[in-house]
Amino acid sequence: MLLLALCLLPGLARAGDGAGKPLNLETIFASDTFTARLPAALQWLPAGGGYARLGETGGGQVIVRRDPVTGEESILPLGDIPGLPADFRVSDFQWHPGSGFLLLKGPASTDWQGYESALWYVYQVADERLRLLGEPGQALQLVKLSPDGRHAGFVFANNLLVVELASGERRRVTRDGNQDIFNGIFDYGSTEFGWVDGWRWSPDSKRLAFWRMDATAVPRYPLIDELHSYSRVRDFHYPNTGEVHAVNTVHVFDLRTAETTAIDIGHDPDDYLPQLHWDSTGEHLYVQHLTRDHKTLRLWRAGADGEGIELLHTDTDPAWLDITDDLRPLADGSVLWTSEASGWRHLYRINVDGKARPLTRGEWTVGNVIGVDEVGGWAYFYAKRESLIDQHVYRVPLSGGPVERLTTEAGWHRWQLSPDGLYALATHSDARTPPTLALRAADGETLTMLVDDAVPRFGAYAMAHTEFVTFRTDDGIELNGFFIKPADFNPSKKYPVIAYGYGNAGSQVVVNRWGTQRGPTQDLWHRYLAQEGYVVFAMDNRTTAGRGKVAKNLTYGEYGKWAVLDYIEGVDYLKSLPWVDGDRIGFWGWSGGGYLAAALMTKAAPLFKVAVSVAPVIDLTRYQAVGVERWMGTPEENPDGYARVNLMNYADRLQGKLLLMHGTGDENVKFSFTLQFADALIRANRQFDMLVYPNQRHGIADHRLHVFTTMTRYFREHL
């Protein structure tokens, strides 16, 4: 039996609010009832322009601009722009008041690979002149206004172009883009680092830096569209573990000379160049160079002319190194950098001579860097210092000194720091409270509450709420979890439990924020299940976020090992509770959580009576190189580890009811994983259920109501 500790987060109710309307699946998944009414396209404008947002009036869309000091607002009615089509809905904008140019983005569309594009207009406010940014009918990608507001760049058909806004003159930065060559945009295999954007303006607007990804040698993976008289095949470059990936190179285009220069750091083509940044002057680039084994990360500094290349800093790790976007260049030539070299991710200042000085220390983890105020001498960042389930905002002097926590309310804080570092547009939520939006001073003081009722109909519904708990494993590790119980919970009764998890190293599902890990609809579905008489349980294993690099490294060599082992401990914990029906425990998960669901029904059988596995990874030898090799090495280096992870090797152990769900158009976790696992189950004479969504991508975004209705029915019938 486990040694147990139970704690209730202060301020959170043990059960839900009894009064109000009951939840239903149509309201959750097929209406906007619970969509947060936060300002659209909210952003700080450059050059002291205040902040702006999209809005609606009786006359149509407007852009509202506000001064953070005086509170004075000005409104630009978009319907008054001459020549803008009446049916053109603006979804985003970029505005430089100093130059007078405004870029307007139309509705975005996403292709079957997940790349977004849209029609863009450029409007010269003073002269009231409007024209298309691209050619007629062109949907553009990765559009960016230059820092001085006089040019815009974008990607079209895997080529990078730049436009002088005053004249409308377009120049091609590259010409060789095609299905194999990607300029200014990442190929699919490289997007596993977390971004698609493959180009950067220099801060002086005189140059732009970009990646060129050559995926010619990368194998192509087909997606088959069966919804036609004859099937249609769409394929794209998808590097499996151990196979060749796109060759990364970095280049600089000079707008004054129209010349392109290669930045050659002499790296092995089998390595990665996952991140780059300009220095504060626009004369130098910082290029990050990650070895193929993910164990060494080098930071290079290079002149924009390709000369003077020098190694500034090196990080190493016995397992793998995560890539972030935390580098911030400073005016004196030093940079801010985050590293897990101490065993915990902390903030460092690296001088021009390469000497790194820590600005934060301790057994806690720095999250993303928010921004820098060089005049005031502060660096702002997120961290989980006092609590793993909350995210707070902190700052530390750039010269070193005590760390200050700037947010006080428990929950999840996110800031957009103003360009001058004096203000923040700050959102806050917790597990039972929808987000609020406030204008804050940089020291954390609330100046103006902008939105305090983002989901006005939330209070009209009877809600079960999240109860956070901790428990200890047999070897003494404290783990975080949460329950959502029926509003009329009676501890003298026995309840079936539906558990949820994800489990990848560095991930987190137990968080004190609105919508928890995967967004409000999934969280509301969990509350709906509680309304239907189930107890919902989730937990984070010992390799998840905020526990340090040594904890994450436990994953190395055998993906999912501790996700499974710690969930076995979680079931022991559940069975120790007098109100849990230990014979009626179910589980569900998606993607990495889908793997966990299938693993728990095979490797950990017969602990769970029923599980739903959505879009599961099954055999990591057939998954993405970047995403897997950091945790596993290559199949050639670690054949036994890959074999232990491959759930096809455990198909004969399946016990209980298992539902597999997958979209055939999944560009991330291949639909073939589910087919291959199904084949293994059939060969092992194991019964299971399967539901296929034609042409749906990884998130099955078009049919969420059907997905969650099916899962509800499956648990109702079998749990």
UniProtKB/TrEMBL annotation:
Record-given protein name: Dipeptidyl peptidase IV
Gene3D superfamilies: alpha/beta hydrolase, Dipeptidylpeptidase IV, N-terminal domain
Entry's Gene Ontology BP terms: proteolysis
Lineage of producing organism: Bacteria, Pseudomonadati, Pseudomonadota, Gammaproteobacteria, Cellvibrionales
Keywords: Signal
Domain (Peptidase S9 prolyl oligopeptidase catalytic): residue spans on this chain: 528-719
Single GO term (MF): dipeptidyl-peptidase activity
Signal peptide from the UniProt entry: 1-15
Stored InterPro entries: AB_hydrolase_fold, Peptidase_S9_cat, Peptidase_S9B_N, Serine_Prot_S9B/DPPIV
Domain Dipeptidylpeptidase IV N-terminal: 100-435
Highest rank taxon of the organism: Bacteria
